[in-house]
């Protein structure tokens, strides 16, 4: 699928960039980091303008993020109630809502570029937790702008090593997710053990 997304970018340019980042923000697993780095390489070759590329990537990503937020906002509570057995009782869902609101801004910002695979889930959770839409949008725009600028500029600077840089950032993202998952599981086990004592 990544080869098709990259081929579409080379063939259709800006419109493909917009479509792919918007669809990825909704939750379809496209290699957005690699796509943005390749976009930077195309900027270096004179195919695209750097500011236009960043703007298109930001607008497309924010559009997709807003869709995920809206789905969570207007359908998330019903889905949470339907699957409450997996999430825990009503008190647990209230605690999850409070955490989503407390970590909202930072969670939105870092999930735009540092742990991008979590982005669609953060969008949905922010909407379901009734996190403020203006705040979500502010952090969303700031995070997407930072991420698009970072990756496109990396592609611009290292245009002759696009594949290697894409692989490094892909591996780094998964390593960060692994560390976060391990820390969460360790915390949960510690909490359960201290409750049993």
Outline the structure in words.
The protein contains ten helices and no strands. It has helices spanning 2-12, 14-26, 32-44, 50-82, 84-87, 90-102, 104-113, 119-128, 133-157, 162-196. The model has no long low-confidence stretch (mean pLDDT 79). The protein has 197 residues and is mainly α. The protein has one domain. It is globular and about 60 Å long.
Question: TL;DR of this structure?
Answer:
This protein is mostly helical and 197 residues long. It has helices spanning 2-12, 14-26, 32-44, 50-82, 84-87, 90-102, 104-113, 119-128, 133-157, 162-196.
Task: List the SSEs and their pairings.
Blueprint: H1 2-12, H2 14-26, H3 32-44, H4 50-82, H5 84-87, H6 90-102, H7 104-113, H8 119-128, H9 133-157, H10 162-196
Helix pairs in contact: 1-2, 1-3, 2-3, 2-4, 3-9, 3-10, 4-8, 4-9, 7-8, 7-9
Q: State the helix count.
A: 10
Uncertain segments of ≥5 residues (pLDDT<50)? none
Q: Provide the helix percentage.
A: over 70%
The dominant shape is: globular
Q: Tell me the major beta sheet.
A: none
């Amino acid at each position: 699928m990544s080869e098709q997304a990259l081929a579409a970018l080379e063939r259709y340019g800006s419109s493909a960039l917009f479509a792919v980042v918007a669809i990825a923000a909704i939750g379809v697993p496209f290699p957005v980091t690699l796509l943005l780095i390749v976009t930077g390489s195309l900027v270096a070759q004179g195919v695209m303008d750097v500011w236009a590329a960043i703007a298109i990537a930001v607008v497309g990503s924010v559009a997709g993020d807003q869709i995920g937020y809206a789905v969570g906002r207007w359908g998330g509570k019903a889905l949470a109630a339907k699957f409450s057995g997996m999430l825990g009782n009503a008190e647990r869902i209230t605690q999850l809502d409070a955490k989503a609101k407390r970590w909202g801004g930072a969670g939105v910002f870092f999930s735009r570029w540092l742990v991008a695979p979590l982005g669609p889930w953060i969008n949905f959770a922010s909407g379901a937790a009734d996190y403020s839409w203006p705040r979500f949008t502010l952090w969303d725009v700031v995070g997407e702008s930072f991420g698009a600028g970072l990756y496109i500029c990396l592609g611009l600077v290292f245009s002759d090593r696009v594949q290697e840089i894409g692989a490094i950032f892909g591996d780094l993202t998964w390593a960060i997710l692994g560390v976060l998952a391990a820390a969460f599981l360790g915390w949960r086990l510690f909490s359960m053990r201290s409750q049993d004592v």
